[in-house]
């Protein structure tokens, strides 16, 4: 039965963390509570939906009355009553809680393909997915298309692997189809491990059926009958929703024996990863499913020839699979035209850092980085100036202001010294130290190195040690050259993608922000005043009112002064914690 | 077959050979630390990098198939620089105690450091520090010297089928260890010790028993019927260590007994001449306790001799050293006597798998035809 009043509550991980479960329960409780006419509660339904991207304003709630949508931000359970009585019962929206124009500019420039269902449908309900043409593509593929036809459509769509490397998906499938074997595998890589990346998680949580449908189509295209979804165990909600979706599919006859009555068999299982970043690498992932240590193995064979248990295997990213049903339904041409000449479609990006609007976005390939930062992201927070855009997570690089007109696609980002990667973007402003940023990412990759090959295991550690030296004022002449040499060495000699890309954050910052490194080494100064060992706090005597606030909070007892007279910091005792800096109301304390 | 060019020389190798196989076929030197021809390709040390014409990045020759028409370069200033950097990095996390290291002189890492002339290392920094606490009886494990080549892990899994050790942890702290970092508790075949390129794994038995200037004697393992070829490392007329060469029929593999069980050679209890047991004439005068059937006279613990505490035959019996002639005469006489008095089936023969087939054939023939009994067997069955 159609309900004309719909309340949609975001229940992605971001939403849940902000309390969306309670909000949803309160809505449901209010609807069914006494005092509201029975006829009314029949017309009204509250449902959970996946992440809609703008996590900074969670919990977001849509109230749709007769097709007219009003969105509320930062909804708390105690706000539900007011929204319900004023808006739903009396028809006047609660103006002060409605999202402002940021919310709309955030969405305006986006093109939602993969995320089109996220935030719109109930991810735990297969009927909700079917109501938006779900499993139509899979049925078509299984009952009326040949494997080669599917492969051709995917090839023509110019879809490229969304996991980061950008290998043409159609080509991969064709290889998988061409190799004959009684057992073949389809694997979905949901081992998203980049710090700050949550694209795949949002898709798995918000639209799990799309991923499964993509895998069913892939299974048909490559004639495989076994599939795995590899999800990290740190994504419990994604695991739960995928598991539910798989069970629903088995019940509906979309998985298992004779799927869609077509005579084609396809079994799908979830495999939970144990938390190693390197398991996102295809060969390590397969070793992990085999029960071995997740460690990359040399690619003597392509996975399409010998992958999981030495059988032909097609492995794609979550986002890649989620694109497939749309491509089958709407045609390769439509998808191809969305993107650039060499790569079709859209890319889901998690935008974070020092921009106003952070969250999950989806843009057609080919938009410029500037559009992402200044239009979707709404520019830099707090009127500060832009410094760099870090793309591609710990394997990516930093792109400076002058290259902001670079288009988002695999080749142009690589040319700029970064990578597309899985699609994380972190905006850095003038208060970010580039050396420290590079150090942060390298710290991550070096501790996540599987330890198999020398350059990655020891090389990244030595690079990190040099960076630590530089940020603590012990840098010396020749360090930068050594860093560069090591970086290029690791890139050239590492066994897998983790090692090959690990030096990117350092190499790209060295390329665009070399002067910042030099300042650290020669002048022992951190221009952004971030590196603790290189900054000194001092009190401007002309501004200090002698209120004593700094003195009271100083944990090291390093500030001395008489009341109502300018105070002083004893730099010998100062531990550079920055507490006084935050405590001073008169901006009398400087850090240089 | 695949034909390719290496450093300008043409070479033809079997299909699915790696570039390294082809390089080795031409006998061109190329450094490796993690490669072992009998184990699966690993690609960890990154020393065997080569350049392929048309490929922008160097590739590891041990993990790349040779293809028709490939043009491979095994040495160039760029490659040598990359290799040297790799070695410098490995050495930056390796104890510099070659002077007292068990493997000095026989260490692949030491040799490479020598050939690449690494006197000064541009890299320093944190080194792994591990407590040495493995209390197993045979294998000394010094994990600070481990270069993570993974040969021990692979040999244990792929050749021995045991899987007693594997990689653990991540990053610089990656370590090879038994489950839960317990003491090694495996079958102690010592294959891992044999393939370890550095001093990380050594035999506890040969600790400080000498490194070089051994006299090497090739012989055959005295234990089972496999007849593995072994090499005794002898110093001052004493066997200090046992190893096996790769080109032997057992391909250099040995088991725990062959590799570590050589203590009997110089044991003072070892029998070198035949012994005949003598007992007092009138056995009935001395009552025998506990013995029906008699317990075996050999004690546990590999001492091999007779130990009074377990001597459960007659307390007054003893052994007399005799010559082989005397011993054979005695055996022949007694066999004849027993056969006459009690019939041939009172006698049984047990032979050894260590004897040759001919010897075993003769032994059973002797029992069946001469003695006239079918009571004949040996550890691998007739």
Describe the model:
Chain A is an alpha/beta fold and 592 residues long. Chain A folds into 5 domains: 5-99, Glutaredoxin, CATH 3.40.30.10; 126-338, Rossmann fold; 346-429, Ubiquitin-like (UB roll); 434-523, de novo design (two linked rop proteins); 536-591, Alpha-Beta Plaits (2-Layer Sandwich), CATH 3.30.70. Chain A has a 5-stranded mixed β-sheet, with helices on both faces. Chain A has a 5-stranded mixed β-sheet with strand order 11-10-14-12-13. In chain A, helix 7 runs parallel beside helix 11, helix 8 (147-156) crosses helix 11 and helix 11 (208-222) packs across helix 14. Chain A is globular, with a radius of gyration of 27 Å. Chain B is α+β, with helices and mostly antiparallel strands. Among the domains of chain B are: 2-75, Roll (Ubiquitin-like (UB roll)); 213-266, N-terminal domain of TfIIb, CATH 2.20.25; 276-378, no CATH class. Helices cover 22% and strands 17% of the residues of chain B. In chain B, strands 2-1-5-3-4 form a 5-stranded mixed β-sheet, sandwiched between helices. A 3-stranded antiparallel β-sheet of chain B has the order 10-11-12. Chain B is elongated. The two termini of chain B are 45 Å apart. In chain B, 26% of the residues are buried. The chains are: A alpha/beta (592), B alpha+beta (382). At the A-B interface, helix 18, helix 19 and helix 20 of A face helix 2 of B.
């Amino acid at each position: 039965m159609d309900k004309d009043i719909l309340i949609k509550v975001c229940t992605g991980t971001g939403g849940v963390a902000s309390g969306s479960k309670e909000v949803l329960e309160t809505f449901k409780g209010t609807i069914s509570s006494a005092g509201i006419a029975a006829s009314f509660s029949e017309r009204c339904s509250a449902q959970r939906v996946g992440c809609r991207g703008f996590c900074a304003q969670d919990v977001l709630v849509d109230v749709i009355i007769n097709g007219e949508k009003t969105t509320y931000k930062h909804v708390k359970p105690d706000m539900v009553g007011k929204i319900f009585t004023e808006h739903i019962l009396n028809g006047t929206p609660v103006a002060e809680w409605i999202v402002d124009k940021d919310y709309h500019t955030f969405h305006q420039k986006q093109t939602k393909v993969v995320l089109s269902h996220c935030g719109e449908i109930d991810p735990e309900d297969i009927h909700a997915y079917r109501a938006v043409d779900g499993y139509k593509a899979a049925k078509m593929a299984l009952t009326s298309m040949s494997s080669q036809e599917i492969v051709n459509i995917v090839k023509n769509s110019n879809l490229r692997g969304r996991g980061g490397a950008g290998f043409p998906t159609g080509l991969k499938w064709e290889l998988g189809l061409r190799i004959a074997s009684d057992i073949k595998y389809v694997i979905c890589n949901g081992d998203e491990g980049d710090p700050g990346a949550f694209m795949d998680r949002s898709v798995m949580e918000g639209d799990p059926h799309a991923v499964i449908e993509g895998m069913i189509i892939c299974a048909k295209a490559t004639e495989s009958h076994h599939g795995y979804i590899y999800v990290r165990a740190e994504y419990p909600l994604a695991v739960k929703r995928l598991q539910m979706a798989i069970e629903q599919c088995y019940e509906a006859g979309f998985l298992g024996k004779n799927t869609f009555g077509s005579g084609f068999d396809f079994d799908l299982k979830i495999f939970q990863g144990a938390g190693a970043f390197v398991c996102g690498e295809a060969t390590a992932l397969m070793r992990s499913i085999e029960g071995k240590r997740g460690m990359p193995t040399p690619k003597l064979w392509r996975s399409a020839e010998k992958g999981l248990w030495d059988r032909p295997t097609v492995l794609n990213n979550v986002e890649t699979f989620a694109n497939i049903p749309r491509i089958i339904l709407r045609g390769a041409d439509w998808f191809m035209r969305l993107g650039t000449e060499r790569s079709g479609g859209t890319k889901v990006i998690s935008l974070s850092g020092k921009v106003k609007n952070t969250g999950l976005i989806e843009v057609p390939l080919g938009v410029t980085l500037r559009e992402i930062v200044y239009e979707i992201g709404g520019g830099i927070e707090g009127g500060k100036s832009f410094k760099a855009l870090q793309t591609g997570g710990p394997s990516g690089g930093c792109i400076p202001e002058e290259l902001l007109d670079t288009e988002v696609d695999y080749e142009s980002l690589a040319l700029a010294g970064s990578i597309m990667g899985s699609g994380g973007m972190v905006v850095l402003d003038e208060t970010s130290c580039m050396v420290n940023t590079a150090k942060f990412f390298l710290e991550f990759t070096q501790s996540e190195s599987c330890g198999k090959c020398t350059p990655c295991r020891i090389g990244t550690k030595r690079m990190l040690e040099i960076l630590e030296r530089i940020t603590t004022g012990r840098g010396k002449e020749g360090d930068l050259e050594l860093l560069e040499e090591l970086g290029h060495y690791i890139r050239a000699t590492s066994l897998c993608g983790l090692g090959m890309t690990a030096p990117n954050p350092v190499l790209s910052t060295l390329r665009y922000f070399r002067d910042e490194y030099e300042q650290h080494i020669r002048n022992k100064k951190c221009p952004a005043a971030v590196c603790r060992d290189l900054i000194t706090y001092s009190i401007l005597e002309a501004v200090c009112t002698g209120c004593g606030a700094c003195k009271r909070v100083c944990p090291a007892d390093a500030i001395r002064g008489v009341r109502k007279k300018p105070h002083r910091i004893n730099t010998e005792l100062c531990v550079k914690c920055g507490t006084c800096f935050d405590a001073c109301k008169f901006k009398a304390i400087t850090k240089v | 077959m695949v034909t390719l060019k290496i450093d300008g020389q043409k070479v033809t190798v079997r299909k699915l050979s790696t570039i390294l196989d082809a390089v080795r076929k031409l006998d061109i030197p190329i450094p490796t630390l993690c490669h072992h021809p009998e184990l699966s390709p690993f690609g960890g040390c990154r020393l065997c990098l080569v350049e392929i014409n048309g490929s922008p990045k160097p590739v590891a020759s041990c993990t790349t198939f040779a293809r028709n028409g490939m043009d491979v370069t095994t040495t160039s200033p760029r490659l040598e620089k990359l290799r040297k950097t790799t070695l410098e990095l490995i050495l930056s996390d390796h104890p510099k105690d070659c002077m007292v290291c068990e493997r000095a002189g026989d260490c692949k890492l030491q040799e490479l450091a020598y050939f690449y002339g690494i006197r000064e290392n541009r890299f320093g920094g944190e080194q792994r520090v591990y407590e040495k606490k493995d209390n197993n009886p045979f294998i000394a494990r010094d994990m600070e010297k481990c270069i993570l080549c993974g040969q021990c892990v692979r040999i244990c899994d792929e050749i021995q089928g045991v899987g007693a050790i594997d990689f653990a942890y991540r990053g610089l702290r990656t370590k090879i260890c038994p489950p839960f970092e317990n003491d090694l508790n495996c079958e102690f075949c010592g294959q891992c010790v044999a393939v370890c390129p550095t001093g990380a794994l050594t035999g506890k038995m040969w600790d400080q028993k000498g490194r070089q200037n051994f006299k090497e004697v090739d012989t055959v393992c005295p234990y089972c019927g496999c007849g593995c070829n072994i090499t005794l490392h002898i110093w001052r007329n004493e066997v200090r260590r046992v190893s096996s060469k790769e080109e032997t029929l057992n391909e250099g593999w040995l088991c725990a007994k062959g590799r570590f069980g050589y203590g009997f050679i110089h044991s003072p209890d070892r029998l070198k001449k035949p012994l005949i047991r003598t007992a007092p004439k009138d056995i009935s005068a001395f009552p025998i306790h506990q013995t029906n059937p008699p317990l075996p006279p050999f004690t546990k613990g590999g001492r091999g001799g007779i130990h009074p505490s377990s001597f459960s035959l007659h307390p007054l019996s003893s052994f007399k050293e005799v010559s082989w002639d005397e011993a054979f005469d005695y055996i022949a006489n007694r066999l004849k006597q027993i056969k006459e008095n009690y019939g041939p089936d009172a006698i049984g023969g047990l032979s050894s798998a260590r004897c040759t087939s001919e010897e075993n054939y003769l032994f059973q023939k002797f029992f069946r035809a001469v003695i006239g009994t079918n009571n004949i067997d040996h550890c691998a069955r007739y």
